[in-house]
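Before any further analysis, we paired sequence with structure tokens, yielding the entry below:
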Amino acid sequence: MPLIIYRYLLLEILAPFGVSLLAFTAIVFLGRLMKITQMIVVKGVGLVEVLQTCLYLLPYLLVFTLPMAATVGILLSLTRLSVDREVMALKTAGMSFAQLLPPILGFSLAAAGITLMLTVFGSPWGQQATRDLLNNVAKKRADLGIQEQVFNTDFQGLMLFANRVSSHGGGLKGIFVYDFRDQENPNTVYAQSGKLSYDETQKTMMMELTNGYVFRWGQEEKGSNRWQVVDSRATGCPCSSSVF
């Protein structure tokens, strides 16, 4: 008889638990939906990569939504049993509250164990897999992290501004670059167009700029300022530089 009751209680808990888990996960996922939509529409990332990103993100979300859904599932199931007088019927049949505790406690421990596994193993794996996936996508689409008409400071020692970013091919228009990797001799570059690409041999990101100027300045040993201007249109050669 207790086994039948235990199975009945577990089934009563699983229904609201499943609905709550789906609802909570969807609500939390909506916060990332805008960025994913931007990856598809603006940056032209493939649907397969986006689905993989969502899959890798799931363990991280479940760390928060699984305990919440388990709590809601237990509370709703016990509330329904109390409202329908089923708890009173079980008490009349001779079952105490202590005898009703094992299925609820077992479900709670199972949810806690799964959450612990996700926290220790699932979430770190998902985050590392997401970083690896984004790195691979960035190798194919070097302009993925570049935002139009925004000063991008993601590159170490560089500040990049692009008036227009092509949705395909890594093309840039109206480019301003401030290169302060050499603090004593910083460079300011303006170019009408350019392109970002990934060099497999050097394992670095390359930026090629055309039709622009390079302004260099610094200080001489005597303290006087030194200026230098390079016009790529006069030399007829594009400028290329390693980004990171």
Remarks:
- Residues 240-244 have pLDDT under 50 and may be disordered.
- The beta strands are 158-165, 171-179, 187-199, 204-219, 225-231, 239-242.
